[in-house]
Amino acid sequence: MDNLFVLSLGGSLINPGEVDVVFLKKFKALIEAEVKKGDRFIIVTGGGKLCRDYQKALSKLRETDKTDLDWVGLHTTRFNAQLIRLMFGKLAHPKITENPSKKYNFKEKILVGAGWEPGWSSDYDTVELAKVYGAKTIINLFDQDYAYTKDPRKFKDAKKIESMSWKDFQKIVGHKWDPGLHVPFDPIASKIAAKAGLKVIIANGKNLPNLKNIFNYKKFKGTVISWPGTRLRILLSQYTASRRDIVVHQPRSNYLAPGVCWSQKHKSK
After folding, report:
1. How far apart are CA 47 and CA 259, in angstroms?
2. CB under 8 Å to 211, separation ≥6 — which residues?
């Protein structure tokens, strides 16, 4: 499906402590502007800080297991999803999608999704939806600008990463999911995306001019995660797109441009 963008919208962008109305108004305006150009969107919401706060509270109230914590987290993603769905009004499909294997033949410009089952984060649902709807690229939005070898907020020797293979990315995020794990893209979703040959852009969702650049094939800040060879194809695509006498036959949903963003395995305490 051409002109379809699949976004994973981090919960901490929606509610970093309280609902960020200023950010959401600007995000809404950007998406609506792109919709007027003919683009369509699947937006899957995470739980973010709200999720971790509820999980922490439940752990203090009684002894819990990972499944219980996951269910609490799933419902925070659904609450966030309803907010985003209602924010877009008639532009959005009237139901949020929770089961990513179920395909909605939605006529609206926007489909909003949320978490499905315990065992992974909403990133997993994003990957499955991309597969179901035939998208080749996922734009994962969280709260950092760059990818580093370590968390730059804690380690001064952290190094920027402009692009990364799935193999190297999985070394950073690991292969195991834990409820509340705070990583740019969860381990289970990464494994499935790698197997499916998907590309993932990780970028700062609050940098909306940068996000606009992604939508419009311009240079941006963000990490491109893919299999080897993608960077060369990106550079060739940018070169041909800059030549007025050359027509690039490439669906917008498959487009990538190089950049950098941070990636660090970090579990909030």
Report:
1. 26
2. 30, 139, 141, 203, 205, 220
β-bridge pairing 163-165 and 181-182: unpaired
CATH number of the CATH domain containing 162: 3.40.1160.10
Tokens of 218: 């311009």
pLDDT tens for 185-238 read 777 888 888 888 899 898 999 999 999 999 998 999 998 988 775 444 544 454
* Beta strand residue intervals within the chain, DSSP E: 4-9, 40-45, 110-113, 137-142, 163-165, 181-182, 199-204, 223-226, 266-267
At 221, the amino acid letter reads K
pLDDT at 255 (0 to 100) = 36
Number of domains in the chain: 1
**β-bridge pairing 4-9 and 137-142:** parallel
Report the distance separating Cα 179 and Cα 218, nearest Å.
36
No. of helices (H) and no. of strands (E), the chain? 9, 9
Q: 3-state class of 112 per DSSP?
A: strand
Q: What is the pTM of this model?
A: 0.80
> The domain containing residue 219 runs over which residues?
4-267
pLDDT digits (tens, 9 = 90+) for 66-121: 888 888 888 999 999 999 999 999 999 999 998 888 888 899 999 999 988 876 67
Q: What is the pLDDT of residues 15-68, one digit of tens each?
A: 999 999 999 999 999 999 999 999 999 999 988 888 888 988 999 999 888 888
